[in-house]
């Protein structure tokens, strides 16, 4: 019976590694902070969850050991990673981080134009990309 537990665990851990690799590629390739945040939160969360569920199933099937720590880890990763990515993206938008040029629609623009005063005191004006490139040279 331990052979089946090892196979199931190995498949889920391998799937988790593939999702984490896709997340890393997305972080490198995508154009702006918003799409990178999406890649980092969705696929890496799925990758970590697959790896942890694979580990949990391996220990349950092969060893007969149930780990509450793995269950808590799965719960907290599933809860915190997407929420953190959403908060980071919203903070970036509120601080006027520019969208990618390919962006087709900005649904938050009308919402924030109605409320001209953002809640944050440290609002930053949008910076032209050429100015940033000249200052780093």
TrEMBL record:
Residues 118-128 have a biased composition (Acidic residues). Keywords: Antiport, Membrane, Transmembrane, Transmembrane helix, Transport. Residues 118-137 are annotated as: Disordered. It is found in: Membrane. It comes from the Bacteria. Coiled coil: none annotated. Belongs to the CPA3 antiporters (TC 2.A.63) subunit G family. This is Monovalent cation/H(+) antiporter subunit G. The lineage of its organism: Bacteria, Bacillati, Bacillota, Bacilli, Bacillales. The gene is mnhG.
């Amino acid at each position: 019976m331990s052979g089946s537990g090892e196979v199931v665990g190995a498949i889920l851990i391998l799937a988790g590694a593939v999702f984490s690799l896709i997340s890393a590629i997305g972080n490198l390739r995508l154009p702006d902070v918003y799409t990178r945040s999406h890649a980092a939160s969705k696929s890496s969360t799925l990758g970590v969850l697959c790896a942890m569920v694979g580990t949990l199933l391996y220990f349950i099937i092969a060893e007969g050991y149930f780990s509450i720590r793995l269950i808590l880890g799965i719960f907290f990763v599933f809860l915190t990673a997407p929420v953190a990515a959403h908060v980071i993206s919203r903070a970036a938008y509120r601080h006027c981080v520019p969208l990618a040029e390919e962006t087709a629609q900005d649904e938050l623009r009308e919402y924030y134009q109605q409320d001209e005063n953002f809640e944050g005191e440290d609002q930053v004006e949008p910076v032209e990309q050429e100015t940033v490139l000249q200052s780093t040279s």
